Amino acid sequence: MIFQSRKGGESNSHTGTESTNHWINQRVTSVLLLPLTIFFVFIFIRAIDKTFVEVLVIFQHPFNNLVALLFLLISVWHYRQGIEVVIEDYIHDIRIRNLTLRAFGIICWFLSIVILFSFISIYTMEI
Amino acid sequence: MIKDPKNRPLSPHLTIYKPQLNSMLSIMHRITGIVLFLGLLLLILWFLTMALGQASFNIFNSYMNSSIGRLILFGSLCGLWFHFFTGLRHLFWDFGIGFNLSWVKRSSYAVIISTILFIILSLIIGVLL
């Protein structure tokens, strides 16, 4: 038996193992985001209308800082995993598909770096 | 049947699919997932401007607290809780739980009710506390 997915006979580098790993990784980020979403929303919603110093105090607290950092980072990668499935479903031209996939990969790495930079700066900032 | 493998009908099949609550929740899960990118970008920018200092934060925070900003945030909140609960249901399905039709119908209503409850709960915590 060959456990290899062939999508419409197109030459696609996807193997069965790769797709299975993608599916499992997407579930891992989903499960991680369940508690993170609850914590983040209830921290964020109390911070949104506060002043700069008050917001800074909230997000310099190690727990709040870590929750927000992990929520945003994992959300970005969860978004990438989700949009990859959407792209593979709806973009049928293999060249445009691969180009879009690569573009989202670059965007997600860029956003991850921005997030890391922001949270380290916030955590170490002196009021 | 279409024999040519290059001309098979491809997803999405929405034009030939009868709209039902379950399929609507499923496609809405995908649509909210895609659109929530906007909310995610706003959050990242909010924290970035915070990291850059008080001046940039005050400018961006005033956009976030303008009526349009609040509308986008409220929309993101609704989309997030909806995506959260439909996603939670998908996770149960992935483990083979709740797959028979009567449970699927019940969980559809549970998703809608939980979403509304959590939106209200978030607003109460945000506004009153």
Number of domain modules of chain A = 1
Please give the CATH architecture of chain A.
Up-down Bundle
The average pLDDT of chain B is: 90
Counted by DSSP, the helix tally of chain B is 4
CATH topology of chain B: 3 helical TM bundles of succinate and fumarate reductases
For the terminal residues of chain B, how far apart are their CA atoms? Answer: 61 Å
Strand content of chain A: under 5%
Low-confidence stretches of chain B: none
Q: What would you call the shape of chain A?
A: elongated
Largest sheet of chain B: none
Write the element-wise H/E pattern of chain B from the N-terminal end onward: HHHH
Descriptive notes:
The complex is a heterodimer of chains A (127) and B (129). Chain A is mostly helical and 127 residues long. Chain A has a single domain, classed as 3 helical TM bundles of succinate and fumarate reductases (Up-down Bundle), CATH 1.20.1300. In chain A, 77% of the residues lie in helices and 0% in strands. Chain A has helices at residues 16-44, 52-60, 62-90, 94-124. In chain A, helix 1 (16-44) packs across helix 3 (62-90) and helix 3 (62-90) packs antiparallel against helix 4 (94-124). Chain A is elongated. Chain B has 129 residues and is mainly α. Chain B has one domain (24-128): Fumarate reductase/succinate dehydrogenase, transmembrane subunit (3 helical TM bundles of succinate and fumarate reductases), CATH 1.20.1300. Chain B is built from four helices and no strands. The longest helix of chain B is centred in the N-terminal third of the chain and has 32 residues, at 21-52. Chain B is extended and about 60 Å long.
